Amino acid sequence: MGRGLEGYREGVAVYLDTHIAAAVAEGKGRRLSSHATRCMEHGELLISPMVVVELELLYEIGRLTHRAADFVHKLRFELSVQVCSLPFAEVAQAAIQEKWTRDPFDRLIVANAKANGFAWLITDDQRIHAHYQRALD
Fold first, then answer.
1. Could you give the CA distance from residue 127 to residue 110 in angstroms, rounded to a whole number?
2. CATH of the domain spanning 13-136
């Protein structure tokens, strides 16, 4: 899908959704739009703390072969991805407005991007694309 980059400027916050962060860290070729690729190359790459929690849960249930800490370390080392440090109270306040999903991970990941100035969010989750105008894939 991928939307235009209205309002995009270099150095802006760009969040990676859980499945994108896992795929990038595992070196799995993910075909991203030119907009998403440009954001990743020139933006400040972040993951929500909820991505870290979801990665660990996926490891615990056997869907991933590495622990969350391993993914975070690799993303930080290879792409300078940082775990977002916005106060949880701000993210929770934004999450209250996300009535379109009952998935707590999606709700908080989108809220994290919104709370950080409606930052870009790279995801291939079509429900997120339908409800967050700054979603890219």
1. 11
2. 3.40.50.1010
Distance CA 108, CA 51 (A): 9
CB neighbour list of residue 17: distance below 8 Å, 6 or more residues apart: 51, 109, 121, 122, 123, 124, 125, 128
In angstroms, what CA-CA distances link 102 with 98, 99, 125? 9, 8, 14
Q: Beta strands 120-122 and 135-136: pairing type?
A: parallel
What is the pLDDT tens value at each position of the chain, 137 positions in all?
344 444 445 568 999 999 999 999 988 866 788 889 889 999 999 999 999 999 999 999 999 999 999 999 999 999 999 999 999 999 999 999 999 999 999 999 999 999 999 999 999 999 999 999 999 98
Domains in the chain: boundaries: 13-136
Helices (H), 1-137: 18-25, 34-42, 49-60, 68-79, 88-95, 104-115, 126-131
